[in-house]
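[Automated response] Your request has been received and processed.

Submitted sequence:
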Amino acid sequence: MSIKYPIIVITGSSGSGSNRVSDVFRHIAWREKIRHLVVDGSAFHRYERDEMALKIEEACADGRYLSHFSPEGNRLDLLESLFREFASDGTGKFRHYLHTEDQALEYRQAAGTFTEWESLPPDLDLLVYQGLHGAFANDGIDIKQHVDLTLGVAPIVNLEWIQKIHTDIRNRGYTLDAVRAVIQHRLHDYVHYITPQFSNTDINFQRIPLVDTSNPFEAQDMPENDESMVVISFREPRDHDFAFLLKRIDGAFMSRRNSLVVPGGKMEFAMELLLNPLVHEMMERRRQLQEI
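Generated structure:
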């Protein structure tokens, strides 16, 4: 953790909707005039797309588990090094993973490949990570220890699968059978390496649909925000003004002393009300340190 060079993590699996949180941070950063960078966790995969497919085949033949959810499928040592270096002196290396043809076109590369490593921009106020392993702590790797605020995005699993299915088919050209196979293959690593992280997070956002999602593989569309509720749980409820939040968010209520429930359509608004004061306080502490 670092006052001078803080790090915020948004962790969630494919299809979780964690991009909604990063969009909120962009709005907050614009209002607060914060120089920040969002680092994509996919950039720390160990293999490019074609090589990963071969490695998965080899692992299956040997009776081993390998996926982008598992430590073996990623360079978590490099991710921890980035966090350690940034928290220490604001430096570090990052790259991009090119998911789509449109992204790849900008770099004149093939989709499913990495760009070259490059240095972080100078004079960043804040580093934001969005990806699979932002709260990972296992196998000699402890990423969470370097992070100042950790947010988990974990919709109920059927909704998560629906969102992944629709995203991969519409945006990445996958077939339903291909996405189903990926989901099935990742289940072991999801249970062992993704879900434990949500016990390490400071705030969790869990969207719960109010429509039938019992068979995600036959769902024709994704539940709309207004067809869902969002449970927001807090590790330290004493740090938050729930009376203020309940007053500002129509339809919100407390289900437990550490759990706030809001309508799905109010999710981004609730995030801004929650996170803006936390980020503002983080930047004030940083500013005061620089003035010493």
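Summary generated for your ticket: The domain at 7-285 is CATH 3.40.50.300 (Rossmann fold). The chain has one domain: 7-285.
If you did not submit this request, please reply to this message.
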